[in-house]
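Intended use. Records like the one below are meant for learning the mapping from a protein sequence to its folded structure. Do not use them to infer anything beyond what is encoded.
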Amino acid sequence: MDDQQLLRYSRHILLDEIGIEGQEKLLAAHALVIGAGGLGSPVALYLASAGIGKITLIDDDTVDLTNLQRQILHTTARVGQPKAASGKQTLAEINPEITVVALQERADEDRLQALVGEASVVLDCTDNFRTRHAINRACVNARVPLVSGAAIRMDGQVAVFDPRGGDSACYACLFPPDQVFEEVQCATMGVFAPLVGIIGTVQAAEALKLVMGIGESLANRLLMLDARSMEWSSIRTAKSHDCAVCAGTARGMD
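Structure written out for the chain above:
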């Protein structure tokens, strides 16, 4: 790190858990952020400000006036612009030293496999089960840790799925792809604006911890927030031996 970087990241470096070594790990990392909306906004902002060296931001949507109630990555002046490009502009203003790749596309299965394979950590900030399952399959195949978040109405949840050790549950262990779940989206159900900020910030924190190898991650735990009462709860999760995605990837079962 040069003198400017030492100054920029000095409050991280002062932490015993991080120091120069941890900050250098962040600078060398590549985060794939899928979705530049309510969750993707705080995720991308904190990853950029914390010094993740490369961020790939992918979203096929454009900025709409209704987004601005919660999607703090974008501004009124950018209504109608691609969210990925708008996000890249914001992140460049916060930290011009990092590399931000903006992709205006909806990645299919093959594309996700390629993108995930290049990443150090993946953050799922999407809002539909089909995409979440495709992201999960790509992360399991590439053995790249996944930080998943969801928020609707006044309820949010965060989980980490880390296939590197082989004993972590994957997304499909909790939500099997052959089961039917109700698709609820902000456009029809609404969402409390600060909720996506809280959940997205937790996602960013978990991703930074994973990259640096510090603390204990949310792997095998689903963290849930009821913003009405501002109460957190969590449940333990476990790898399913019958999982259609990760069964057979336990440690020593390659």
